[in-house]
């Protein structure tokens, strides 16, 4: 391979590495959220360990039934009159959750 070809290949590999590192950094930054009470790491395991927030954003693959089970709110459809069809939920849809009352 000619010297110019090797330089071009090296440049392409360097750009690919930089893009990969930038994507990894974005993933890390996107998984950390700073709140008043400190840094909160978001993720499926940690989200399942805490109760659902009152305002809930539907994620990919979720149904009202799965959200109801996850959040402990059997009255999601009644609390959200903007959801006309329980089968027509989509990622990004914002719904209200009535947090379960603790038995304390």
Automatic annotation (TrEMBL):
<dbReference type="InterPro" id="IPR018392">
    <property type="entry name" value="LysM"/>
</dbReference>
<protein>
    <recommendedName>
        <fullName>LysM domain-containing protein</fullName>
    </recommendedName>
</protein>
<keyword id="KW-0732">Signal</keyword>
<feature type="domain" description="LysM">
    <location>
        <begin position="56"/>
        <end position="98"/>
    </location>
</feature>
<feature type="signal peptide">
    <location>
        <begin position="1"/>
        <end position="24"/>
    </location>
</feature>
<dbReference type="Pfam" id="PF01476">
    <property type="entry name" value="LysM"/>
</dbReference>
């Amino acid at each position: 391979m000619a010297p110019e070809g090797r330089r071009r290949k090296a440049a392409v590999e360097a750009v690919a590495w930089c893009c990969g590192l930038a994507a990894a950094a974005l993933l890390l930054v996107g998984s950390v959220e700073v709140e008043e009470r400190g840094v909160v790491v978001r993720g499926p395991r940690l989200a399942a360990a805490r109760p659902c927030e009152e305002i809930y954003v539907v994620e990919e693959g979720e149904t009202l039934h799965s959200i109801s089970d996850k959040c402990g709110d059997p009255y999601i459809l009644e609390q959200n009159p903007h959801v006309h069809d329980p089968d027509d939920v989509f990622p990004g849809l914002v719904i209200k959750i009535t947090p379960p009352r603790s038995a304390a």
